[in-house]
Amino acid sequence: MASGKILVAQGGGPTAVINQSLVGVVLEARRHKSVSLVYGARHGVRGIINEDFVDLTQETSHNLELVAGTPASALGSTRDKPDLAYCQQIFKVLQAHEIEHFFYIGGNDSSDTVRIVSQEAAKVGYPLRCIHIPKTIDNDLVGNDHTPGFPSAARFVAQAFAGANLDNAALPGVYVGVVMGRHAGFLTAAAALGKKFPDDGPHLIYLPERVFELEQFLVDVKTMYERHGRCVIAVSEGIHDASGEAIAAQLAKDLERDAHGNVQLSGTGALADLLCEEIKSKLKIKRVRGDTFGYLQRSFVGCVSDVDQREAREVGEKAVQYAIWGDRDGSVAIKRNGYYSADYELLPLEAVAGKTRVMEDEFISPCGTDITDAFRLYLRPLLGSGMPDAYRLRPNPVAKRLHQTE
Amino acid sequence: MASGKILVAQGGGPTAVINQSLVGVVLEARRHKSVSLVYGARHGVRGIINEDFVDLTQETSHNLELVAGTPASALGSTRDKPDLAYCQQIFKVLQAHEIEHFFYIGGNDSSDTVRIVSQEAAKVGYPLRCIHIPKTIDNDLVGNDHTPGFPSAARFVAQAFAGANLDNAALPGVYVGVVMGRHAGFLTAAAALGKKFPDDGPHLIYLPERVFELEQFLVDVKTMYERHGRCVIAVSEGIHDASGEAIAAQLAKDLERDAHGNVQLSGTGALADLLCEEIKSKLKIKRVRGDTFGYLQRSFVGCVSDVDQREAREVGEKAVQYAIWGDRDGSVAIKRNGYYSADYELLPLEAVAGKTRVMEDEFISPCGTDITDAFRLYLRPLLGSGMPDAYRLRPNPVAKRLHQTE
């Protein structure tokens, strides 16, 4: 007889809407007669290893809805990237608790974990459905039109640059904003959606999809500064030289690496400070300011896309439907349908696991420092309703009285 | 015969609501029969010197309302701090254009400019009404319950720490957020309003009103980290040692100073990076992240307090009423009346000009690293309606099966 037990967990960096997916799983699962218990693992796969489970069957629907609207992983997360032995241990715990459906909400590393656990179950003929639920502000999952969490982070970045542009117009100078995104520039590119008038910033956008050359960067900044009397720049933390070495990593004295072998790029202002220093010393521009958006862009409460919320909820719901009504494991993916609607499908885990999507060429201008209208059209509907708008006074100059010869 | 001309300008750092004050002046002035023309100076006092005026009489009321809702100084701002000769030049231009009322929206440096210009006019018996309209995210104007711009920036800081706390709970470690505020800690203290549950961060708050000692800081962080398994810290950019030297300034290789002789504290991530480095190396904690909120906290579009908007509008309106119906110059100030309502009064310019308010002792806990309920009660109504709230899953632990002896 089937146990009717399901387990859900959250991995990787939190997002503004990852709890929507969690609650989508829980509420959808609870309405299925075949489901008896819904467990959540605390702090991702680490919580599975430690058998640190909470019984979400006992949670009220009302509180679940409130948690859904709260950013960051309500179950806790982890940066652990399980190897084969770790995945075998995960499977052992799932077996011990007679788990029949395993849902893991996370990015491409998490999908790889789901893939290995799924294989372990298949090896011994244990009937386990394993579903990966997409989540990443980097938008770097292949096979997805976009990933839940990205639209809200993109909205933060767009609103931040809209404001930085206004501030920079009021007190002119150079402004450098460093945005998250190790390999994919989607989030940095979102800065362009903060632009309204033709002379608005960001005037330059540097993406990890293109090689970064410091000399050319300085030429670009000089050109824009002379044109506009100011310059707003969006820079991805993942910019790198021709050899592929990250500009940030070249500067870091102590290279902190996580379990995935990744160098820490966020949580330090070094890249923004270096670029500002270069502009000040080489271009002799006095007012140069740099901000590193850091954790604000993924955790700020009160900046969320309603489209993102809805889709994050639905990928959770669809995951349960695929697991219970379907006969195969997989990764839920968002498909775009019209302008604008989203549909969902289940991709094979192998199609998504451990792979990285980067920005398509059609989204990047030939000059390499701007984005195309195709990208604007792609991103705009994802940002959701109620985007703030910026207005200007119209020019109505008054004739001078003292400086009439000027 | 009177010219009926008024001039308005914006000085210092932009805020989320400074355009409300501008529009308050313009719309209120336009309804008075004695007013014929409303000029705006572009980029503050520098625009007056350059006679760079726009005629706001020609602007539509509709567009003015839209500009009011847009953050940052719509007329442009300046960091110029006029000396006597500069103020005499300002007065010369005002005379040439037959300006009868001069309104300057800004902080304590701007109020000092208004004071000197007012004196110059009085010296020669020129009938000029000079009114200072308060604005500063630092909340450091004396004689004011609080200043327009502070509540919206405080809301950003509270929402940022609410989110940083959730992110830090999901992926535990140490998080350091550096907040603006050279001498006054009000904005940093606002971090505490992001706290809901007793174990929420910020767990430690460092204000410029107290001496910062690195050794004690490390002891504090260690204590909180051991208690909560994580630690969220709010730090003012203005923290200083016993001699009064800013911790940030001790680190800066190149001390950039503005026209006011102030060292640049914002637009660099150095302070956050130093503190993180100390925590990593001395306390051997691996996951330590630092964010410098930088310009986001004053320019981000879409995070504004409706109370702040309303009051910023009203100080502009009241300024015009004081100028036209009153017989003296002064600085408009906000008075608190009940829980919660605001009234306005006109203070003598000498009472405000060039002075700096810091946090009152009753707002700071005896331990020096937390704020009091008096501060919570003071700030809460200013943050406005619709503050995001954070919810948690309730603990319903599941019995272990493999680790039963644990």
Automatic annotation (TrEMBL), chains A, B:
Keywords in alphabetical order: Cytoplasm, Glycolysis, Kinase, Magnesium, Metal-binding, Transferase
Main location as per UniProt: cytoplasm
Activity regulation behaviour: Non-allosteric.
One Gene Ontology term from the biological process aspect of the record: fructose 6-phosphate metabolic process
Enzyme active site: 138 (proton acceptor)
Catalytic activity reported: beta-D-fructose 6-phosphate + diphosphate = beta-D-fructose 1,6-bisphosphate + phosphate + H(+)
Keyword Magnesium set for record: yes
Superkingdom classification of source: Bacteria
Cell compartments where the protein resides: Cytoplasm
Cellular component GO terms held in the UniProt record: cytoplasm
Subunit composition and interactions: Homodimer.
Database matches in HAMAP family: Phosphofructokinase_II_B2 (MF_01978)
Role of this protein: Catalyzes the phosphorylation of D-fructose 6-phosphate, the first committing step of glycolysis. Uses inorganic phosphate (PPi) as phosphoryl donor instead of ATP like common ATP-dependent phosphofructokinases (ATP-PFKs), which renders the reaction reversible, and can thus function both in glycolysis and gluconeogenesis. Consistently, PPi-PFK can replace the enzymes of both the forward (ATP-PFK) and reverse (fructose-bisphosphatase (FBPase)) reactions.
Protein name in UniProt: Pyrophosphate--fructose 6-phosphate 1-phosphotransferase
